[in-house]
Amino acid sequence: ITDSLGSRSCYTEAKRCGEALCMAYFRQHQVPVKIVRPSLVYGPGLAIDDKRVIAEFTWAALRNPPIHMRDAGIALRSYCYISEAVALLWRVLLSDEATGHAFNIGNAHDEVSIADLARIIHDLTGVTGNIIMEQETPLIAAPSRVCVSMEKCQQFFGFEPTISLRY
């Protein structure tokens, strides 16, 4: 649950407002609305200066200095590879049965801690430096876990992710 008055709430609240407006048009004007909620999508095209942890760690690894973490890295995330996100997005958009529904676009099966993410990127890129935990300065109001439910995608489309962050 997001604190609607928190410093990071404008992003979440704007999405919720947009979804509410879309659903109002669906109900009142029969506009064929389909809502998708991409969650932690990564892959080619991700800007290296994106400021999200996967881009920051990858950039650090490519420059070959140590990977720096802001805290102990116990927060959990699940990442979805771009090709699976796009395939699922098209399934939703082309499905008549999906009208009037919201779908999470993600990967609920590949949950990792931020510390594990740093180790995975460290290993995949062959970084020679260590992973360094700096003084604990976690992001204010950052969620401790981001792992979306994919039950509706499974129910409607039989979707099961096949690409793992670890491979």
How would you concisely characterize the structure shown here?
The chain has 167 residues and is α/β, with parallel strands linked by helices. It has helices at residues 9-29, 53-63, 82-94, 114-125, 151-157, and strands at 35-38, 41-42, 67-69, 76-78, 80-81, 102-105, 111-113, 131-133, 145-146.
Describe it.
With 167 residues, the chain is an alpha/beta fold. The chain contains five helices and nine strands; from the N terminus they run αββαβββαββαββα. It has helices spanning 9-29, 53-63, 82-94, 114-125, 151-157, and strands at residues 35-38, 41-42, 67-69, 76-78, 80-81, 102-105, 111-113, 131-133, 145-146. The longest helix is centred in the first third of the chain and has 21 residues, at 9-29. The radius of gyration is 18 Å and the shape is globular.
